[in-house]
Structures are given as C-alpha cells and as structure tokens.
Hints:
The protein is an alpha/beta fold. The chain has two domains: 3-130 and 220-337, Glycoside hydrolase/deacetylase (TIM Barrel, Alpha-Beta Barrel), CATH 3.20.20.370; 135-213. The radius of gyration is 21 Å and the shape is globular. The protein is 47% helix and 13% strand.
Amino acid sequence: MLRKAKLATLGLLRSAGAFELVANNKWRRERLLILCYHGISLEDEHQWRPPLYMQAELLERRLETLRAMRCTVLPLGEALTRLRQRDLPPRSVAITFDDGTYDFYKLAYPLLKKHQFPVTVYQTTYYTDHEMPIFNLTCSYLLWKRRGEQLDSARELGLAEAMDLRTELGRHRVVRGLIELSERENLTGQQKNELARRLAGILGIDYAAFSATRILQLMNAHEVAEVGKNGVDVQLHSHRHRTPEDEVLFRREISENRVRIRAMTGTQAIHFCYPSGVYRPEFPGWLEKENVISATTCDAGLVDRHANPFLLPRFVDTSSRTQTEFESWISGLGTLVAVRKAAPQRYVVPED
Ligand SMILES: [Zn+2]
C-alpha cells in the first residue's frame, strides 16, 4: 500500500475511534511498544538527515501524546520481564535512544525528566573517550552545509575527483572517498579529526566553532555518569558502533562497550541494540555468550511474548512520521497497516 493511502486509512480509522478501541483491547495489552529515537537537533540536523534527527518541539509533542493517550512508560528491563509474565499494564511503552549523543543530554533528557518517563540509552563508547565529532557523519554534514557548490580542491584532501556537492549522490561520493582514504591510511581518531578539520577549511567552515556546538558528538564520560546517576538506563550499542562478522571481534565490541559503561555508571549493561539495525543469524548466540539478555532492531513492530529476545522490533520515530502515524503505533493499529521493514536509506553513511 502506498504511504499516502496508508496514512489516509489511518486518518479514517482514527476518526472512527478505532485507535481508542484497539489501544484498550486485550491484543494490545499483551504487547509492548518500544520507541526508538536517535538525535534531537541542536541546530538544523533534522534538515540534513530527517530519518535520524527531529526537533525538540516534536519530541515534546510525542511525550505529551504518550501522556494524553494514557500510556504506561516502563523501564525497558521491567517491561520485558512483565511481558514474559503476562503482567503488562495497558498501553505499555518503553523509550529508547540510540548512540548516546550530546543532544540527548542537552535536549531530550530534560524533557523526559519533566515528564518523569524512564528511558534507555544505547551508548556507544569510543567517542565518549575521545571528545570530537563523529568523523563519517561530520563529513556528510559539513558537505551538506555547502550543498549546491562545486569545488576543485579535492586533491588537497587526497581525493581523485572534484567535489560536486550539488546532489546527494555527489556529496555521498566525497564522503565515501574520505572514509576509504581514512581506512586505506589507517588513520587514528585524532588524524580523522584533522582530516575533517581540513575538509571544513576547504569548505570555508570554522571547525573550532562547529566542534564547540557539539553537533554530532556523543556525551562525554561526565555526562554519561551524570545521566546514569539520575536514573537513565545506559545499555550496550558496541564500543565502535560496529558489529564485526568475526565472533571474537564482535564479542570484543560488546565486552569493551560494557567495561566502559561500567566505568562511567557503575552498572552492568545487559541489553543491546544493533548499530544501524544490522544483524545476522549468528549474532543472538554470540550475545547470549556475553550474558546479554535482550537486543533491539530497527524493524517495525510491537513486541509480543513469543518474540525472540535478541530480535526485538521497535517503532523508529522520526521527523517524517505524522502525528496520526505515531498515535496509530501507540494504539497498536499502526503495526497492522504499516510495512514491517523501514525503507532502506538511499545513501547510507556508516555512523561510526
Ligand atoms: Zn546507533
């Protein structure tokens, strides 16, 4: 079904009172909705990457909707236990944020606190130790800032082609070139940061000022510790935002991530979220060996009692979701009408 037709159907169902009906029925009561958020814009990030970012006002509206629809927002661990015990309260929801970015600390966390909603943050940890913008995403964002331009200075950066920033594909080519360069030359985090600084220079962007905004930066260790102390549930998302296909390397990503989280919060993380929603059949077994008890994906769905605990679906809420769509998911009806898998992004930049 086309998205437009689907939204029209949802609108009709909503006016007919179907949301309310489904929200209160037994079927929904036996299911948990896990909401997934990424970034909240400090400036204009939602315009650059609508599937990853939303404005704080929109998040606030979502939280108010949860309140208005009388949802019970539960801590993730408690929600999963009560799901198994068939003891979920009506309209149960768990809220999760991926990555643990600075904008969570600055914008999302105060809103969640105001509403007294529990939240789980799936925290990657490499950049919590190295306070600098995330390289791959930063390259993409800086080039987007200069969209519409064409530059010949690519050679100064070691790139073969001129930089054509007029189209998404053109910008994506430059990002790929920079990532490949950093991999070929095995650049350290510091060296990648230098490369991003040089890119900014060529684009006429003040990198020091950009870094000071903390756009595309994670929470630092103090900030993670602070939110952890104030009740935020900090959980696993791999150390370097990656899931190697080699078991030893994969499990090292989990154990390093866990050690870093424990050092910051003093807690033992046992819930995991697949970076970029990518998973393979062997991952659940490897997670189990690392004493992880649940893992969430970016596949759309409500969680029922029979769900594989290592493949839990979520509803990825973004700027492009309408209010009706959001409400349909709270009620449970969204899952019946929507396509199950999120449409793949056209040009995916690895987030690590
Ligand atoms: Zn992530």
